[in-house]
Amino acid sequence: SQTIHQWPATLVQPVGSPLSLECTVEGTSNPNLYWYRQAAGRGLQLLFYSVGIGQISSEVPQNLSASRPQDRQFILSSKKLLLSDSGFYLCAWSSDTQYFGPGTRLTVL
Amino acid sequence: DAKTTQPPSMDCAEGRAANLPCNHSTISGNEYVYWYRQIHSQGPQYIIHGLKNNETNEMASLIITEDRKSSTLILPHATLRDTAVYYCIVRGGVSGNTPLVFGKGTRLSVIA
What we know:
The complex is a heterodimer of chains A (109) and B (112). With 109 residues, chain A is mainly β.
């Protein structure tokens, strides 16, 4: 069966520091991968999606970037975090149905 | 933008059926209706999806009107653990290439 992992589960970072969140999927090959963000009390916002290695589509201009160095690995990064980057970051994969990981709660202070 | 309209909140007594409505009047012929739920501080959980026929699985039933402009998710015997935000999403095809676009959903509170 397929599983999706995200780490870390929680993260507290100072403003201006870099960020790297990792997502990996097991049990499937060539999945479509997605990064979403949910700000406190808000809905889920699609940030990036990828249909293959090195292929990244950005949905919203952000202080963030994404990379897919391997088939089942999706990384969300930032060079300098802003206060507004705080939120719940969710990775998802799909073949037909989309499945979500457990999420990373990021607090930028 | 989300293509669906849902009530912001609903209450349901424990043990009773929870019926969550969704309007999707602009749905096109190849678009599916998906339902997810998000329990507090967790990632969204897939519930069910359908095209035009009613669907049932171990979690819920999905009733889609004949004109496909609205649907209802039914939780037959709601429990306290069903308290969550429920999202109705219209998505083109079952191709995994189309990302889900979430609206604000319905906050369902199951009351003892």
